[in-house]
Amino acid sequence: MKKAFTLMEVNLAILIMAGGVLAVCGLFSLGYRENRQSREDVAAASYADAVMSPLVMAISSTNLKWSVFRSLQSYPSDRGWSDYFNGDGMVVADPEGQAKSVFASVMGKMQAAAKGPFNVNTGFPSAASGNMRAGLVVLHDQDSAIVKICFRATKHPSELLAMPIFYTEVRFQGLANE
Question: Going by fewer Cβ within 10 Å, which terminus of the chain is more open, N or C?
Fold first, then answer.
């Protein structure tokens, strides 16, 4: 008598292998999604660094007077991220334009107040965006020696407020008023 596999054993083996192959195929889509998200996260972090570093350099300037630092406002306003919503609760049509306006306002104030050379790039680093849309909020209480800078970026503007926040604080390091 010859030993062989029965039809039932062969079908069971094919069923088990098919389940394994389908599971592996399901992991490909998950891996693709995670890879795309990882690339966007790295791009957002790089963009955040390109935007926030010049702001930190300008605000933490050691030749800045306390009166100028104290007069630094919150941008776009005291409402913070709420300014990025329109009346319908959706993200505004041009969050990038608003971020550029915040950046220009802070840099303009710092450049005007600088005593001596202002060695900070005052242009918004759009080249670092990688086709991402940004949101920027600068918060400052006039009696505080700390300025808070918050940044978000995404490829899909409608998802801007769902993205992680890149955050830093800048402490006053300038001169007492004369």
Answer: N
DSSP string, 125-172: -GGGSSS-EEEEEEEE-TT-SEEEEEEEEESSGGGGGGSPPEEEEEE-
Does 178 have pLDDT greater than 60?
Answer: no
Domain count, the chain: 1
Mean pLDDT, range 111-120, rounded to an integer: 78
**Cα-based distances in Å from 5 to 13, 17, 128, 146:** 11, 16, 63, 77
Cα-atom radius of gyration of the chain, to the nearest Å?
26
Query: Considering the chain, what is the average pLDDT of its residues?
Result: 88
140: in domain: yes
